[in-house]
Amino acid sequence: MSVMTRTYVYFKALIAVLLVVGLAACARTPGDGTGGAATPGSQQEFLVTVGDRVFFDTDSSVLSPQAIDTLNKQAAWLTRYTQYRVMIEGHADERGTREYNIALGARRAAAVVNYLVSKGVAANRIDSRSFGKERPVAICNDISCWSQNRRAVTVLQ
Amino acid sequence: MVLGNTSLQSLLLPKRRDVLKLGLAGLAGAAMISPASALVRIVVSGAEFTPLPVAIPDFQSSDPAFGRQVTDIIRANLRRSGLFAPVDPAAMPQQVGDVNATPQFASWAATGALALVMGQVEQGGQIQSSVRVWDTAAQAQVVGQSYSTDPNSWRRIAHIVSDAIYTALTGEGGYFDTRIVYVAESGPRANRTKRLAVMDYDGANAQYLTEGRSLVLTPRFSPNQQLLAYINFEDGKAQVYLLDLASGRQQRLGNFGPLTFSPRFSPDGRAIVFSIENQGTTNLYSVPLGGNRPSQLTSGAAIDTSASFSPDGQYLAFESDRGGTQQIYIMGAGGGGAQRISYGEGTYSTPVWAPTGDLIAFTRQSGGQFQIGTMKPDGSGERILVSSFHAEGPTWAPNGRVIMYFSDPGGNDGPRLNTVDIWGRNPLQVPTETFASDPAWSPLLS
């Protein structure tokens, strides 16, 4: 069951990647010579080139070097394309209790908000919310999934 | 430290001596005749225990099928409690009881039954039931009573009579005439539909209160059971909402911050304690029902949540990671200094004070597993009742003898409700149509 479930999730993830790539391909301006990059300033570019999410260790809201790298890129992109507002969505994995996980997701979202603001993104462009453990993206009973679910996602609006 | 030893000690003293009669004997073993009263009384102590054999012939009724339906529920309730072993009806000297006759005790004692229940039930403008509980060895009546309920809730008469039998034979309040509010779950894990639902304690009569358009979590009954407090994502972010059970009307508790959650009513029903998150920190607040100025109970950069009142309303148990990991703390209901009470291995969360005041149930995470356990309000006497891949969110039966929680095997499977008694015995799943989580047990309806 769990193997099947995980396969299904990976399959879904693959489809999602193909969709994004497909969208990016569609969004390409003919003859712009960029060879596959998404339109600058598009949501597709943000997803594919910048990355919309950062991941956390168990029960932690500390930004890893990798997360900081992603957030630096997000901040640079957002200060360039000021037409977007963003919603930071904080999430926890399933290995915690419900109410604490809502607070933990909020704490992770706050860590991202604070970092983006420190890098020059106007605070009034950023909102945040927490889904706790209610909206996992990877479904299985081991760390390969839990580590993907401990995340904060920057959603362009 | 707000709680001196004296006040904690007073918390531990049982308020009603009767409450602990079940455990008083301290004898291994069992069902026995109480020498004091010479009447049958079940004695429970620790893990060593044999359920009390009880014979319950069908209740007399002008509608025998109805009499049998009611009796089947009574037998199921007593069996489900784990304290009683209903005798097989096929082994009984008579199939239908007679509430007005003195039983032939010898023939009932021959079935092994130590207690005998005879009853009758009639459906009219009201449903009425009379019941007598007999001690087959002492050949004496333990209790004789009549009850009535409105005809729209015929299962209730079975639960009310079951509570009377339970009380007659254990000396404690029952818990059968109660309801559970919970979250009914359906759909894939990554995008679960969650609806508020209520049902009888045994899983019957489920009613869905919300349609699933918005995510809802952690419903809690008000003490008079007229209101639910719960988390609703209707506005995009988690907010404490109230639902009026009579009208179905839902409204936000108030505009108290971008993220509010973890509500719990005070024992007098006049206030709600809950958490407000602000810039990554989560603190506890309380607000009078209908009030618009919450008072702040905790402060600091930690996560303080899952507050639960002591039954006398004087104290709050809550979880906080102020010491680095989630642990259980106790403080006065008005806030102030808090005292940590959990010191075992792992992290502790979701403390819920027993209605009897003598225990706090919790979720513990340790060794990659989740546990449901209890401890005394001073943190001593920790007892783990259940350990599994994922078990969470205990809630107490009104007599403080049974705990319900949810367990979840993970993956795209989903959670189910389970009960276990406070000695860790008699683990049972509660049947529900859908996956189910976040149970909260009502007080006795009658």
In whole angstroms, the N-to-C terminal distance of chain B is 40 Å
CATH topology of the largest domain in chain B: Neuraminidase
Relative helix content of chain A: 40-55%
Let me know the largest β-sheet of chain A.
4 strands, mixed
The greatest inter-chain interface is formed by: A-B, 34 and 44 residues
Distance between the termini of chain A: 37 Å
Instruction: Assign the structural class of chain A, choosing from mainly alpha, mainly beta, alpha/beta, alpha+beta, or little secondary structure.
Output: alpha+beta
Domain count of chain B: 2
> Which consecutive residue ranges of chain A, at least 5 long each, have pLDDT under 50?
1-35
By DSSP, the count of extended strands of chain A is 4
Instruction: Report the β-strand fraction of chain A as a percent range.
Output: 5-15%
The radius of gyration computed from the alpha-carbon positions of chain B, rounded to a whole number of angstroms, is 23 Å
Helical proportion of chain B? 10-25%
Biggest sheet character of chain B: 5 strands, mixed
Question: What is the CATH T-level topology of chain A?
Answer: 60s Ribosomal Protein L30, Chain: A
Largest sheet: spatial strand order of chain A: 1-4-2-3
What is the name of the CATH architecture of the largest domain in chain B? 6 Propeller
Describe the 3D structure.
The complex is a heterodimer of chains A (157) and B (446). Chain A is α+β, with helices and mostly antiparallel strands. Chain A has helices spanning 2-27, 43-50, 65-80, 98-118, 143-149, and strands spanning 53-55, 86-91, 126-132, 151-156. In chain A, 50% of the residues lie in helices and 14% in strands. A four-stranded mixed beta sheet of chain A has the order 1-4-2-3. In chain A, helix 1 packs across helix 2 (43-50). Chain A is globular. Chain B is mainly β and 446 residues long. Chain B is 12% helix and 41% strand. Chain B contains five helices and 31 strands. Chain B has helices at 5-12, 21-24, 64-81, 105-109, 154-170, and strands at residues 31-33, 40-42, 52-55, 84-86, 115-123, 127-135, 140-149, 179-186, 193-200, 207-208, 216-221, 227-232, 239-244, 250-252, 259-265, 271-278, 281-288, 295-296, 304-309, 315-320, 327-332, 338-340, 347-353, 360-366, 369-375, 383-388, 391-396, 402-407, 416-421, 428-430, 435-441. The longest helix of chain B is centred in the N-terminal third of the chain and has 18 residues, at 64-81. The two termini of chain B are 40 Å apart. Chain A binds chain B through residues 1-2, 5, 8, 59, 61, 94-100, 102-104, 106-107, 109-111, 113-114, 128-130, 132, 134-137, 139-141, and chain B through 188-192, 194, 215, 217-218, 231, 236-238, 258-259, 261-262, 275, 277, 279-282, 303, 305-306, 319, 321, 325-326, 349-350, 363, 365, 389-390, 392-393, 408, 410-413, 438.
